[in-house]
Amino acid sequence: MVAATTLEAVDIMGLMKLLPHRYPFLMIDRIIDIDGDDSAIGIKNVTINEPHFQGHFPEQPVMPGVLIVEAMAQTAGAICIRSLGASKPSLVYFLTIDNAKFRKPVVPGDQLKIHVKKIKKRGNLLKFACEALVDGTKAAEAEISAMMVTGD
Asked: Which enzyme class?
């Protein structure tokens, strides 16, 4: 018999301890199903109260794709920092976006589930495959890379 693995979660207060981002640029509300720095699912509850909807677009609000990619990067960055515990770096810098595709508009009322999976790690450089889903349908995907740095 194989023992079941219990995956972990981080709420908004935990995220604010891990990430330097704050309103209006904190793009995730919580992270669930954390498996070390290998994978996780970030949750973003999209609401009309977000400032970007004032101009993108007032009559037909759509979440900007670049903010969906930022939510992917924040999810990946948070699990990287969390996996290091007390020896966490000062920052995780977003380095590249590859193969980004936007497949479905994300609108107020949607809940984004941002799946991130580590596909490569070399030293302090990491690469993740990411998908953002709404109701099980892929809204966006990208590969992102990041660099963890210390404040030394």
From this structure: lyase
Beta-carbon-side half-sphere exposure of residue 7 (alpha carbons within 13 Å): 12
- How is the chain split into domains, by residue range? 8-149
pLDDT of residue 5: 63
Q: Amino acid letter at 14?
A: G
The per-residue pLDDT for 33 is: 95
Q: In angstroms, rounded to a whole number, what is the distance separating the alpha carbons of residues 32 and 11?
A: 8
Length of the chain: 152
> Among this protein's residues, is 52 annotated catalytic?
no
Are 118 and 128 in contact, with CB atoms under 8 Å apart? Answer: yes
Architecture of domain 8-149: Roll (3.10)
Distance CA 89, CA 37 (A): 14
